[in-house]
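Holo model, coenzyme A. Inputs:
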Amino acid sequence: MNDSAVNLRQASVDDLDAIMQLETATFPSDAWNRETMQRELRSRVNRYYVLERDDTPVAYGGIRVVACDADVQTIAVADGSRGQGLGRALMEHLMQAARDEGALQMFLEVRADNPNAIALYESLDFEQIDVRHGYYQPDGIDAIVMMKEPV
Ligand SMILES: CC(C)(COP(=O)(O)OP(=O)(O)OC[C@H]1O[C@@H](n2cnc3c(N)ncnc32)[C@H](O)[C@@H]1OP(=O)(O)O)[C@@H](O)C(=O)NCCC(=O)NCCS
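Output:
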């Protein structure tokens, strides 16, 4: 990604409306509700980031860091902005943020029916360590648990 109109910054609860718009458009069957997202943005162990293009949020993602473990809470790029390197840039930023917070390893869960995201994580050297059967409801889709160590 090399686009001067793109800006990546830390998110706050002021971004809740924009993030919820992206969240509900991206995850039609299992979007987090507004209260959950608000708690995510307010949590002191979380770091959320927004990626803006021409001052419009087009992607967001967040991590939770507790002791040496970082978890990717969520990451999404707006439909019309995918395939342009934004997801990779955001993931690399989340990994750097995790290291800055002292994390030694990073975990994430991804739907087994999401090959694009799995390809992104594998390209960043995340490895599959577990499967949670039927984890994503109401669809009953497995979660693939992935880890990168050191992050
Ligand atoms: C997964 C997601 C975040 C990737 O973001 P993106 O901006 O489209 O991805 P990028 O353009 O940075 O591509 C990064 C890598 O992802 C993979 N990828 C992305 N789109 C792909 C596609 N259509 N087909 C195959 N691989 C793809 C590739 O490995 C790609 O690397 P490459 O360009 O070197 O081949 C984005 O597709 C998205 O928001 N999807 C919906 C929400 C979601 O699935 N979130 C993850 C939940 S765990």
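The mean pLDDT is 96. Strands lie at 6-10, 46-53, 56-66, 69-77, 105-111, 127-136, 141-148.
Archived with the compound record.
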